[in-house]
Amino acid sequence: MPVIMKEVSIAAGVSNPNLLTGSPYELARGNVYFSIGVTAAATGSFCQITSGADLVAEEFAPPVLTRYPIIPDEMYFSDFASLVDRLVVSARNPTGGAIIHRVAVQVTGVG
Question: How close are the terminal C-alpha atoms of the chain, in Å?
C-alpha cells in the first residue's frame, strides 16, 4: 500500500495550494481509496482537502501536533478517486510565524 508522507513549512501570511505537489501519488493511477491525516505544529492555520471534483473537507483547523498523524487512528479523512483525479491538501497560514504541516496519505487500489 503506497503512502505519501510530506512535511511542509508554511511561512507567515502564505498559502500553499497543494502540500502534496510532486508526489507520484498526487494523481490517482486508477480507482483508488485515499485515507488522509493532517497535522500542524502550531495553532492558527487552516487546511482544505479535495479529491478530483469532491470536496473532502472544507477549510478546517488541523490538529496541533509536532508529529505525523498516527496511522490509522488519526486518518480523519477519506475518499474514492478515479483515474487522474488530483488529491489536493491546501494550507493557509494567516499567523505571524511559520507553521510546519505534516500530511500522511494511504493509497489503496480498488476494483
Answer: 14
Residue among 24, 57, 60 nearest 40 (CA): 60
**Which value, to the nearest 10 degrees, does the dihedral of the CA atoms of residues 32, 34, 35, 38 take?**
160
pLDDT of residue 26: 96
**pLDDT tens, residue by residue, 9-39:** 999 999 999 999 999 999 999 999 999 999 9
Mean pLDDT score of the chain: 97
* Contacts made by residues 60-63, CB under 8 angstroms, sequence distance 24+: 62/38, 62/101, 63/38, 63/39
Cell of 23: 508526489
Which residue, 100, 45, 31, 90, is CA-closest to 67? Answer: 100
| Torsion on CA atoms 90, 95, 99, 104, rounded to nearest 10 | -30
Q: Which amino acid is at 74?
A: E
